[in-house]
Task: inverse folding
């Protein structure tokens, strides 16, 4: 029998198991990063003197949130290009800066993003990692994931054509070679803490050959794909290039499949595209804050769910959201669907939380190991303290998290059985020094890119 490393006792447990059971007063035990018991009642088992016990009284234990889409380097570009239409935003917020990124920028940007993720209860992040003006930039993001202790998926971007990111266009051969290098070096390593995906950027930044070869590479190594799809900008570009919308073109070339996570899917989703996504088993990452920030429309999430499409949640990058706060994303997801339908009953807090936990794990192909608090799964979880003015009185812990809580309610975060944050203090790295270095990196980057800024810190 394995030695228990960690016990969380006397805590309300929102399991997100198949029955969506909530244990009003219970405990869990964790050994070697795996949950080995989830029970009601008081903890009374014999344990080793080395076992750590966390008192969860008057708090709520949830599965860690899963952010299925961000661009984590963009922490250095927060607030740049705000209030601009998407094509101007590309030019002002990204194209001026991405070619100037250094390895240090990528590392500190990813550290800040990982810290923010942890502080908002996120235990797994998918970084759509596309700017590679220098070799080994993806490795610096992975290094940051490891140093903070967050579960990370790095989707290596492919940009080999187009107008949107001229400064970081590379040859298709070199991009795919780097994808393959990353897969061989990191995929599934560190006890499954790091995974590598392949990510054609958009229909207007990745060639048709790039899409085909990305699909081949992902299938060869049994990994996954992700792509920005079905937004006003991608549809417009696809119609100019190929005479059809981007989802139709991607179906025509054999790109759609059950290992694909399509991101955004807003105004481009109609009955035909719902049928396409459902037919091929494509999953969708819904990013409501970013969609609103850039005026890219409201995704028909309820229609997708009714069509049997797996839908998960993401924040998108901090340059098109200004944060990576998944708790904020929970509430915005619910509110946008309600106001779009003019019907508050179209989606409830339970479904929204599912999208950020167990459904997110399903869309990533990791539902067997993360996304719920069940025996045998990885110990990725957060302890939420409802004893704050914004969340008392507590009636329903799920509704409280979705509609009332902010990231300040997240008290403790555990990833792979390790305490990464406790009492809102990060235990793995020096948070203050990281923030100082990231601010310095951002200011140097802005100066190189000739980006105006209001003030320095």
Result:
């Amino acid at each position: 029998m394995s030695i228990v490393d960690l016990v969380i006792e006397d805590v309300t447990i929102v399991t997100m198991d198949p029955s969506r059971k909530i244990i009003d007063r219970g405990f869990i035990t964790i050994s070697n990063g795996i949950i080995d018991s989830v029970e009601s009642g008081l903890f009374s088992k014999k344990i080793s003197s080395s076992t750590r016990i966390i008192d969860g009284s008057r708090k709520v234990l949830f599965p860690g949130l899963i952010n299925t889409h961000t661009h984590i380097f963009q922490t250095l570009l927060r607030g740049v290009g705000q209030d601009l239409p998407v094509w101007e935003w590309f030019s002002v917020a990204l194209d001026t800066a991405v070619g100037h990124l250094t390895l240090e920028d990528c590392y500190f940007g990813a550290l800040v993003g990982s810290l923010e993720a942890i502080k908002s209860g996120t235990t797994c992040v998918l970084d759509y990692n596309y700017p590679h003006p220098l070799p080994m930039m993806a490795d610096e993001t992975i290094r940051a994931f490891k140093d903070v202790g967050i579960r990370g998926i790095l989707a290596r971007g492919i940009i080999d054509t187009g107008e949107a990111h001229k400064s970081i266009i590379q040859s298709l051969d070199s991009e795919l070679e780097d994808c393959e290098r990353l897969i061989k070096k990191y995929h599934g390593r560190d006890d499954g803490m790091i995974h590598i995906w392949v990510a054609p950027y958009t229909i207007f930044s990745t060639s048709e050959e790039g899409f085909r070869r990305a699909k081949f590479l992902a299938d060869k190594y049994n990994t996954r794909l992700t792509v920005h799809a079905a937004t006003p900008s991608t549809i417009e570009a696809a119609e100019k290039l190929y005479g059809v919308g981007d989802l139709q073109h991607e179906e025509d070339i054999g790109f759609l499949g059950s290992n694909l996570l399509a991101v955004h899917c807003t105004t481009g989703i109609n009955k035909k595209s719902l049928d396409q996504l459902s037919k091929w088993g494509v999953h969708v990452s819904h990013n409501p804050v970013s969609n609103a920030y850039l005026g890219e429309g409201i995704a028909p999430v309820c229609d997708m769910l009714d069509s049997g499409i797996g839908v998960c949640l993401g924040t998108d990058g901090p340059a098109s959201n200004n944060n990576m706060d998944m708790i904020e994303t929970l509430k915005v997801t619910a509110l946008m669907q309600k106001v779009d339908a003019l019907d508050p009953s179209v989606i409830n807090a339970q479904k929204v939380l599912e999208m950020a936990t167990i459904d997110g794990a399903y869309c990533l192909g990791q539902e067997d190991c993360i996304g719920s608090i069940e025996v045998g799964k990885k110990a990725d979880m957060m302890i939420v303290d409802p004893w704050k003015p914004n969340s008392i009185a507590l009636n329903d812990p799920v509704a409280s998290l979705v509609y009332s809580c902010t990231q300040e309610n997240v008290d403790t975060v555990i990833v792979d059985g390790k305490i990464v944050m406790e009492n809102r203090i990060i235990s793995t790295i020096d948070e203050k020094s990281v923030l100082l270095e990231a601010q310095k990196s951002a200011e140097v980057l802005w100066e190189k890119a000739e980006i105006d800024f209001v003030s320095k810190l």
